[in-house]
Amino acid sequence: MNQIVIPILAVGATRERKRQAPKGRRVDPQALSEVQALLGDMPRRRDLLIECLHLIQDRYRCLSTQHLAALAQELRMAQTEVYEVASFYHHFDIVREGEDSPAALTVRVCDGIACELAGAGELIERLPAILGADVRVLAAPCVGRCEQAPVAVVGQKPIPQARCETVQAAVQAGEVADTPAPGYLDHAGYLQQGGYQLLRQCLSGERDLDSVLAAMESSGLRGLGGAGFPAGRKWRIVRAEAGPRLMAVNIDEGEPGTFKDRVYLETDPHRFLEGMLI
Asked: Which of the residues 12, 53, 145, 166 has the least number of beta carbons within 10 Å of its own beta carbon?
């Protein structure tokens, strides 16, 4: 069967020019300059993406598509990769062309199961009228404070057992930044208690690998995600694999009623860091 082919000529375009054209959104020079100024001397590594997104969010209260494109170029990442990470977390506000920036202050009300049962729905319904148009009120997924339900987060400051009155008072007082939890053990305090000595022993060879694995196995420590797999055995299995070996520490408190990881991280963070380094 004969088929008529109609040639299409792209006026002024050549294959070479098409190959040289960048994929995705073109980077705005001003946005690139702003992102570079924020990052400063920070290494341009893709594993620092979330930290970079926080810098932009904190400075401009949102993530414009121009800033996301500029950040992708700085980190040598695909724009889709940067966008996928930014759009996954409720901490970040993506603003597209033509959209208004969010209000100067955002109040997030946890709508997880524990907070919902404790009255989060009423907070979400009543707070917009109480706080006014200058404050944005959003429902947010679990913030890992189930023992304090219901919880509202004013800016970055969590309000435990939140009521409309306490949230309004925090907004009016400008209390938008979090502070260390009571009993927080800082770096100096951790060192005074013998912190990082075990790591030094491992690095110096005073304590060998097998003794560390044996201590983990004899401790009986197990994962509590459901399988109850012995941690020591897991470490030994991973050690037997060819490198490079990577480790991810899951501290997400997404399960109903859980908040243990957040409590330990807020009060004794260096114990986590030393364990990860070991």
From this structure: 12
CATH class of 15-95: mainly alpha
Distances (CA, A) of 231 to 61, 65, 82, 270, 273: 41, 42, 33, 20, 17
Q: Where are the domains of the chain?
A: 15-95, 105-173, 187-277
Topology adopted by domain 105-173: Glutaredoxin (3.40.30)
Quick: pLDDT tens for 148-174. 999 999 999 999 999 999 999 999 999
Distance between CA atoms of residues 5 and 185, nearest Å? 75
pLDDT in tens, 23-43: 567 899 999 999 999 999 999
Peptide bond just before 141 cis, omega within 30 deg: no
